[in-house]
């Protein structure tokens, strides 16, 4: 049946071909289908362990203060981003420089908390446009620094591989997560000068926001309002951060903790809006499409929700409009609420 076929392979343009075929031509047209595994269902992405394959990328440089003070000296810091290619979980490590020793230390910390990956992928040197010479040397296949790091990881059961040069589309599965982190992280941090501890705190809390996004409903039961997140595969439960009252968005430099919390909140707000805009598809209504049905899980849009919180609900009843289209649904989370279609994403 259709479900069993989708578990094994992906049919390229199958629906389009079926729509233009009648019953007599169906068999011949079926022969011309080009069966190919989709990028999301290759063997790398369906392993039953989250540490099997990881993707590595760097962000930076960022100014890092040695201490607090008006004339405190500063240096450059970098962020190593590890992406799981199975559940798209994110792990962030702050590193002091681009040397092999700093990278291996970050890799050791990652393995100590997340487990040792079987394969580690990274971009080749030519994909790091505008990067520092040390970074290109570190990630150049065949360089002395890379050989040292590769031997270090192979002794611990990890194989370091490179995607082809000038082919960033080979990393399309993880590029969205890396690009989203870099894009919002730079805009939230701005020109702020943080200490190493403060930078580590901001990076860790942003990591929690990224790992709290819903992937799919946990079950199809109408009374279940939970969704699986990358955090479920990392720690066994969701990362529901405790609510912190914040009466304004002004960053106060007299209170360093409020500064870090404000940066985290700003990142969460920007990232949540981006994800919701991607999940909420606004297709042209050229043809009739299947509407939400009672029992479907939906994501509610709430601008007042706390970071790492995703309000979910189940559809209880659908109210058709006068034109025959479904304009509003009755959903149930903690209470019954009536919402329009554009206030949710399924």
From TrEMBL:
UniProt-listed InterPro entries: DUF5641, Integrase_cat-core, RNaseH-like_sf, RNaseH_sf
GO biological process, one term: DNA integration
Any single Pfam family the record assigns to this protein: DUF5641
Domain of life per record: Eukaryota
Any one GO MF annotation of this record: nucleic acid binding
Residue ranges of every copy of the Integrase catalytic domain listed in the record: 44-238
Name of the protein in its database record: Integrase catalytic domain-containing protein
Provenance organism: Trichogramma brassicae
Species lineage: Eukaryota, Metazoa, Ecdysozoa, Arthropoda, Hexapoda
